[in-house]
Design brief:
It is a single chain. The protein is α/β, with parallel strands linked by helices. It has three domains: 9-20 and 206-302, Cobalt-precorrin-4 Transmethylase, domain 1 (3-Layer(aba) Sandwich); 22-106 and 309-318, Rossmann fold (3-Layer(aba) Sandwich); 108-192, Cobalt-precorrin-4 Transmethylase, domain 1. 37% of the residues lie in helices and 19% in strands. It has helices at residues 22-38, 52-59, 89-96, 107-121, 135-141, 155-159, 179-192, 206-219, 234-245, 280-293, 314-318, and strands at 9-16, 42-45, 63-66, 79-81, 101-103, 125-129, 149-152, 169-173, 224-228, 249-253, 269-274, 295-302. The protein has a five-stranded parallel sheet with strand order 10-9-11-1-12, sandwiched between helices. A four-stranded parallel sheet has the order 3-2-4-5. A three-stranded parallel sheet has the order 7-6-8, with helices on both faces. It is flat and about 70 Å long.
């Protein structure tokens, strides 16, 4: 007869959709395909996506991650730009050095770049809603000359914008923001500048919106939430914030080793989701850790079905 104490029961609500989005799948596939075609080493400027597990897995296969193009030697081996996008100066530098580059920028980020370029062409003031220092923001602002884009991250910063100077004005947004926070900032912009041009289609990407909607619904049904993702992942941080806003005790963890078990003491229900750059393997490791400590009753909460897919760049599709 076993002396082991019975495991406490735990209701686990698994959010769907969660994890990899189409842009991340495409970016990782680009790197994998480049390795297959050209062999190691393949160079990637910055993290291909914000997830250490993904980055380390690719390093083990022969990918070399670099901070700047100067670290890439000239030659036939490809240099890949990350899913977050890059400023125009980066491909220009690559061309000047005769580097072979492949662009893994998410098509939804490229869409924002093009919107900003169109606004600039029409002589509009451009406001970018986003977070200072995020690679996507650096890339979007870098599509245009210095000073052409003004970054705002809060309603207070909207209030501090220069008044109407006679030029038309437009806004674009970072794709991985909080839907709720961005809605409030947009409302503040529209209050100050009633004629402001809005994006023809929402800039916040479908995956960000869907994952936030799922965790918002789940957070209302549970006591705690675990968000799987990297600390430097904007969309993962927003998932944690969305859960907390619903009154749920949420923690963002890179993997099962980061779980704060003390905070789960006495908790009878927990939701699990994953940021758009977190692979499903990490979710499975979280579930295994929970099963080891609890008598888990697992259920899935589905709030949307995703079928989005982006093709690889032509150069990678055409090579046999």
């Amino acid at each position: 007869m076993s002396d082991a104490l019975p495991k406490p029961p735990l209701r686990v609500v698994l959010c769907a959709p969660r994890g990899f989005c189409a842009g991340v799948v495409r970016a990782v596939d680009i790197v994998e395909r480049a390795l297959q075609i050209y062999g190691a080493p393949v160079y990637v400027r910055h993290e291909i996506v914000h997830n250490r597990f993904v980055v380390d897995s690719l390093k083990a296969k022969g990918v070399v991650f670099i901070k700047e193009l100067a670290e890439a030697p000239p030659g036939p081996q490809p240099v890949i730009f990350s899913a977050h996008g890059v400023a125009k100066a980066v491909p220009e530098e690559a061309t000047a050095r005769n580097l072979f580059t492949i662009d893994a920028t998410c098509p939804l980020v490229t869409k924002v770049h093009r919107e900003a370029q169109v606004h600039f062409k029409h002589g509009r003031r451009i406001v970018l809603i986003g977070h200072v220092g995020h690679p996507e923001v650096i890339g979007t602002m870098g599509q245009l000359p210095p000073g052409a884009v003004t970054l705002v991250s809060s309603i207070d910063e909207v209030e501090r914008l220069a008044p109407d100077d006679g030029r038309p004005i437009a806004y674009v947004t970072q794709t991985t923001l909080s839907v709720d926070d961005t809605r409030e900032i947009v409302a503040a912009l529209q209050a100050r500048f009633p004629a402001i041009h809005a994006p023809p289609n929402e800039d916040i990407c479908y995956a960000t919106t869907n994952r936030q909607a799922a965790i918002k619904t789940a957070a209302r049904q549970v006591e705690a939430a675990i968000v799987v993702g990297a600390a430097n992942s904007s969309n993962s941080q927003r998932l944690r914030e969305v859960a907390e806003r619903e009154g749920c005790a949420a923690q963002l963890v890179a993997d099962e080793r980061g779980i704060d078990w003390a905070s789960l003491a006495g908790v009878a229900s927990v939701a699990i989701t994953a940021g758009a750059s977190a692979p499903e393997a990490l979710v499975e490791r979280i579930l295994e850790a929970l099963h080891a400590r609890y008598d888990v009753a697992l259920e899935t909460l589905t709030t949307a079905n995703e079928a989005m897919a982006f093709p690889l760049p032509r150069a990678l599709r055409e090579v046999p």
